[in-house]
Amino acid sequence: MQGMGLGTGSSCAPCSAGHPAGRRSAGPKGGLSRGGSACPRPVIKEEEEEGGDAPGTGPEHGGQPDTGSVTMAQSKGTVVLAYSGGLDTSCILVWLKEQGYDVVAYLANIGQKEDFEAARKKALALGAKKVYIEDVSREFVEEFIWPAVQANALYEDRYLLGTALARPCIARKLVEIAQREGAQHIAHGATGKGNDQVRFELSCYALCPKIKVVAPWRLPEFYQRFPGRRELMDYAKKHGIPVPVTPQTPWSMDENLMHISYEAGILENPKNQAPPGLYTKTCDPANSPDTPDVLEIKFERGVPVEVTNTGDGATRSSALELFVYLNDIAGKHGVGRIDIVENRFVGMKSRGIYETPAGTILYHAHLDIEAFTMDREVRKIKQGLSLKFSELVYNGFWHSPECEFLRECIGRSQEPVVGTVRLSVFKGQVYILGRESPRSLYNEELVSL
């Protein structure tokens, strides 16, 4: 079976330009579709099952079929599964093999707390042909979070888009691995009621219009077989899938470097207060230190390039280290908690609780330095662009031509956004203390009374 990835004439083949072509695609019949072709090609590291095929070999390339795979007569080809190591995607991995797929598992390290080595061994034990564990933390900060900071991106006035920004980053690598493996299919474990199914699939279709998506939680043969967690647990025991031994929290969580979200379970009743033990990235502001941390954050073109703690002199300047440091400081002071009801793209309201520590500090700091340096009329237009940008990101259109256009426009607006903001982080709040900039439009002599 010829792969969709790097073969001659494939619509998924990387182009030489290094960026999305901005073409819309009709997409597979009945599927979510929108976008063009794209061609990111960073180095990919991989973990293989012992004795497994190396990249570019195996049945689809004329090599010898793996003895543990289904027979070629039954084979549906290779599918790359966005794998988390949890119960759902572990069951999906085994189920996909039952359906006749050769499964390549992909686990993104995007800053979450995870035993990646244990997840790799688990996936291989369950029959994955290969396991890719990719650290995308740095590119997540530099290529996804920084544009959101420049935009002052905020969905429905409160949500800083932590999950929505992570999905296109994860999906981009998912498509790259599918291209390398010659896989015609990708699969994910997102439910049929949430936003993530849309975010994953729109990104994949934009980057590779002919890719085929397997979404088990939308397939009757899957969700009718597994109507609840009990059926998944029974299936896991039957197939030797390790079952979690720790008690399940009565809500679901999703974590990345930027934030952690909590929803479902007891949180679905919007009048229920979040229990004290829910929060994991931030401490209770009431129990936070009685002395603030005073920070100076330096911006160039609207991007934070250095943070200095005036108390102990600690400095961070690389993107990833800077962001991790701000997460630590904000978390210590209980900064970044919100409890909201939002409008999902799929047509329902949902209650979500979020912790976005570093993102909250940077939102306030960037808002301040931008107001200090940007022309009034340009800023009015830019605010409208930011509103549209936030909506597109939330709805899954990061890789669309219109979102790329907005990022270019917003990036152009950030040329004068240069300078340093001094702020205090204390008891769940961020307080702006002062700012300075060589591009300031503030005229002290003119404004003086």
Structural account:
The N terminus is likely disordered. It is globular, with a radius of gyration of 23 Å. The relative contact order is 0.13. Strand 5, helix 5 and strand 6 form a beta-alpha-beta unit. The chain is built from twelve helices and 15 strands. The protein has 449 residues and is an alpha/beta fold. A six-stranded mixed beta sheet has the order 1-4-3-2-5-6, with helices on both faces. Strands 11-10-9-14-15 form a five-stranded antiparallel beta sheet, covered by helices on one side. A four-stranded antiparallel beta sheet has the order 7-8-13-12, with no helix packed on it.
Brief write-up:
This protein is 34% helix and 19% strand. With 449 residues, the chain is an alpha/beta fold. The chain has a six-stranded mixed beta sheet, with helices on both faces. A five-stranded antiparallel beta sheet has the order 11-10-9-14-15, covered by helices on one side. The chain has a four-stranded antiparallel beta sheet with strand order 7-8-13-12, with no helix packed on it.
